[in-house]
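Box 4.2: Ligand-aware structure prediction
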Amino acid sequence: MDYSGVFPFLKAEEIEASEEEVRRVLETLQQGDGAGGEYTGWLRYPESIPEGELRKMETLAEEVRAEADAFVVIGIGGSYLGARAVIEGLSHSFPSLLSPSRSQSPLVFFAGQNLSGSYLEELLEVLEDRSVYVNMISKSGTTTEPGLAFRVLRRHLIERYGQKGASRRIISTTDSAKGALRKVTDEEGYRSFVIPDDIGGRFSVLTPVGLFPIAVAGIRIDTLVEGAASMIEPCSMPGLFQNPAALYAATRNLLLEKGYSTEVLVSYDPKLQYFAEWWKQLYGESEGKDGKGIFPASVLFTSDLHSMGQWIQEGRRTIFETVIHIDQEDSTLQVPVDASGLEDGLGYLEGRTWPEIQDKAYEGTKLAHHQGNVPVLVLEAPTRDAFTLGQMIQFFETACGISGYLLGVNPFNQPGVEAYKQNMFALLGKPGFEEKAAELEASSRGSSEEKLV
Ligand code: PA5
């Protein structure tokens, strides 16, 4: 982590002065005696995943890869974003358009992450002629969006493959003992994976929640986990300047105290779009509570330099950037030399490679934004591969735990998520929500009268 770009917005002494508090908070996190400490199993999970568990996931993934052309992952929030982040981060940009000889993996689709009927209808259309497997992921087993999508996909499988065939093609990932999904899994004999009790949704990508779908996509989960495990030690170091997660957590909280209340995660690689979505959930749901928190936003450069770039350069000075900079681009594409007839002023770039041009865009942007009074943190990643993504996941999760405690919140709960659910249940007439429904009815009558006035 290169934090030179936070100066002069922060002083070195201010960072140094936070060392003691960060050490205390890190200890609390490691000992599991802080708020939500019972959900910190992810801290050391990558180095303690039972060998047999990884093998079980790989073996079942091989079966799915051999038999399926379409693999539907059903889940929302922490039961969705991590798998998508890694799969999209490490797959071809146009998987559905690759010729069958080049595509060795089933197409991966996601469902249950929204309440769009047309999304599901269109998904069913593309599943029609394909051999389908489904992975239903829900820790609670009762979340509305994935629960409804599962109903639709389960019926689709039963209609096509019969009850027994469907049960073979449904793989569930859920709690070891509790919940509706565990119950139907046991009753219908689905093959299943267990989500450890001490790991909550948004910290669960390196459990079967993320690992199984990632394995089906053909990505080496052992390498991903190795990368994550390699970050455990550095992210456990007591010294602020030896521990990148602690330094990141401390720096962003100090910036918040100075009024930088929005953090923009920047990436130059479109394949990291869902990594940014995963990161936003991790920090947004963990820190945005009790009237506190840094608002996590994300941009993809250079696309967004032609839209949000203006705001970042000259808008309200309340933002700082965290840039994921991948050192080695995996492309060798060069600007063609013969461009006769084109008077676009780009001739000076002939023969240069895309990574080289992108790197200059990165350097130029970093300088411009810093000069425009945006503090800039940079995370240097040697390459975009399974090992590095594993490292980044473990780094961000650990930093999130430390950061939440520095902020003074419980980073492992999400009480605010209930508010919309309660209202939605009441409005949909769920039994037990009659009182809430009456309350909503009265308040909507009140507000429409106000509008009439
Ligand atoms: O991070 C979280 O805890 C949430 O985003 C959950 O993952 C999400 O609400 C899905 O929950 P479940 O897995 O119980 O369906």
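In the box above, the bound molecule is 5-phosphoarabinonic acid. The mean pLDDT is 95.
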